[in-house]
Amino acid sequence: MSESMLLPHDKVLELIRSAQQGDQQAQEQLVLCNTALVKSIVKRYMGRGVEFEDLYQIGCLGLVKAISNYDEAYGVRFSTYAVPMIAGEIKRFLRDDGIIRISRSLKELAAKTAAAQEELCAKLGREPSIKEIAGELGVDSGEIVMALESSWPCQSIYEPMYDDGSDTTVLDHISSKEQEETNVINRLLLKELIRDLEPRERQLIMLRYFQDKTQSETATILGVSQVQVSRLESRIVSKLRDAAK
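Predicted structure:
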């Protein structure tokens, strides 16, 4: 749970308004109150070759962006808005910085592990166990496992999941939770973009994409024909796409 929940909602809004007007102390207080929220999100992305502190810093950048972009008109609590913004910033970092970023210490251990594995293989006349390699290097067995995994090639998400001739790929097994988070981020970003639309355009988009109205229902509400709604929607969507580039 976000530490900002300890503050009354009105106080959070007051701090956000001050921060958006350039009050650094208000921004720092908001960041401090949301450290638990950032850390809880960072934990979802551990084990990908990036140190916790690095991901935490990236998550804080996402939090600061959330503070700058939050609008009370969204009708959601700040912590609800901040979660997909923080997660999105971390995912962009992991995507843009490479599929997996291996820390220097892990790379060094991987090199030592490979050397020790080769020496023990020659000495024992067989493949050494994880425990034997760990004993040779004086480290924990878990560290050896991580070092070995870090040197494995990345698997394409389009590769077959099984060797049974089926068409099932790794992509098919990716958690739908990631897609749900992406959908939330996209919807929130869309809300940001529609603030710049004309009132009538904004109403049409809200009816179609946030209230799930059909074109026919939207036409009735707006007092126009369904054909006009279809044309307006296409034009507005094109405008939003251009604004998002």
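Summary: The chain has three domains: 3-96, 104-173, 196-244.
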